TrEMBL record:
<keyword id="KW-0378">Hydrolase</keyword>
<dbReference type="InterPro" id="IPR012319">
    <property type="entry name" value="FPG_cat"/>
</dbReference>
<dbReference type="InterPro" id="IPR015886">
    <property type="entry name" value="H2TH_FPG"/>
</dbReference>
<keyword id="KW-0238">DNA-binding</keyword>
<dbReference type="InterPro" id="IPR010979">
    <property type="entry name" value="Ribosomal_uS13-like_H2TH"/>
</dbReference>
<keyword id="KW-0326">Glycosidase</keyword>
<protein>
    <recommendedName>
        <fullName>DNA-(apurinic or apyrimidinic site) lyase</fullName>
        <ecNumber>4.2.99.18</ecNumber>
    </recommendedName>
</protein>
<comment type="similarity">
    <text>Belongs to the FPG family.</text>
</comment>
<keyword id="KW-0227">DNA damage</keyword>
<keyword id="KW-0863">Zinc-finger</keyword>
<feature type="domain" description="Formamidopyrimidine-DNA glycosylase catalytic">
    <location>
        <begin position="2"/>
        <end position="100"/>
    </location>
</feature>
<keyword id="KW-0862">Zinc</keyword>
<dbReference type="Pfam" id="PF01149">
    <property type="entry name" value="Fapy_DNA_glyco"/>
</dbReference>
<feature type="domain" description="FPG-type">
    <location>
        <begin position="298"/>
        <end position="331"/>
    </location>
</feature>
<dbReference type="Pfam" id="PF06831">
    <property type="entry name" value="H2TH"/>
</dbReference>
<dbReference type="InterPro" id="IPR010663">
    <property type="entry name" value="Znf_FPG/IleRS"/>
</dbReference>
<keyword id="KW-0234">DNA repair</keyword>
Amino acid sequence: MPEGHSVHRIARQFARNFVGREVAASSPQGRFAEGAALLNGREALAAKAVGKQMFVEFDGDLWLHVHLGLYGAWDFAGEILVDPTIASANGRMGQTNQRGTDLGDRVMDAAGENSLTSIGAPRRTRVHVRMSEQTRGLDDEGEQWPPPVVGQVRLRLLTELTCADLRGPTKCEVQSTDEMLRTIARLGPDPLVGDPEEGEERFTQAVRRKRTAIGLLLMDQSVVSGIGNVYRAELLFRARLNPHTPGKDVPEEVVRGLWRDWVGLLKTGVETGQMMTMDGLDPEDYRKAMASRDDRHWVYHRGLPCRVCGTSIVVEEAAGRKLYWCPSCQA
């Protein structure tokens, strides 16, 4: 399932490429035909993410609310302006974010960071070139525009330059402003939404009053927004915290440390597009980690001994999801 960093990246792509433009909306699959009809021909006014939920505002007091869930993904085509605050954001964005990234010819600076993050001006990336009248529906590379519908597209949003196709979401609905605000009110704090210090207080109070295991609380989107299976495992390991510890038994300073670590990891995830959770890597190891998930996590999905102590990583079921942790480092 896409975690918080992926959804923030997608929202920023919508803000860059759809906001301020009239949008044609359709439901090629047919399952969102009524909702698409409500949005069709309206101007997109804003786009934002809160945890794993994305909201796009349209004129007429309408909001598109999307939760990708386990199988959802957005596919972008056309002329895409990449938000300067993120390393790259063209092509497929969604559940595929967990696969390794082909670094290709990307330039990496001395610190191993993707150099696009340091460029202030937008970068124009062509995935498909917009058609001209002379080509009768084909772009100058012979590709059709708008691109043909492939698979079960729940929602297609289209401007003159950019196409976004949504497939397989858990939630896709049109809301009023009041309904959108009620949805957000049910969510826990997100470090990139509102005041992080207020978010820290909300998170700390929510955790410290519950007997639920901290490993479950971190996945509870009413406690904290955006954390999924990967970040849950990595945050707990980085804190050397047993996932079965009741929230109320976790020392306050440790709870606050979890939040502050989440603030940093989320920002890194938005900038790079990867859940980089290992610190202190040299440039070559950073390159490897950015290219391969197995090289950028401490315990998640690790079928090898703990990187720190050599103990076998435990994999168990926790509320229907796999939980990875080291029984020695996190005793």
